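Hi there,

I know you've been waiting on this one. I reran it after we fixed the sequence typo, so this is the corrected version. Both the input and the resulting structure follow.
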Amino acid sequence: MSEEPYRHGSADKSCTNVRDVPNEVYQSLDSVGKDEKWWEAVELQKLILAHNKIELLKEDLRNLPQLTVLNVSHNKLSDLPAAIGECVV
């Protein structure tokens, strides 16, 4: 996933056949790497994971307080984590 979400505030991983959301997606700016320019970083606000094979979203969504758009349509989710309610500002 690299530094893309931290630079632009959005990540589009739709139609990539992913089964799991990469752990770095759930990380806040507190975990920006040492080699990255933290002053250029932006909290993740938009996450597009549509048309994949994802079965589970972690409660770690609570680490993304600025997330305002989450598209997980056309996946294999049977429910959403309770933490999703903490993402709305």
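Quick highlight: The mean pLDDT is 81.

Best,
R. S.
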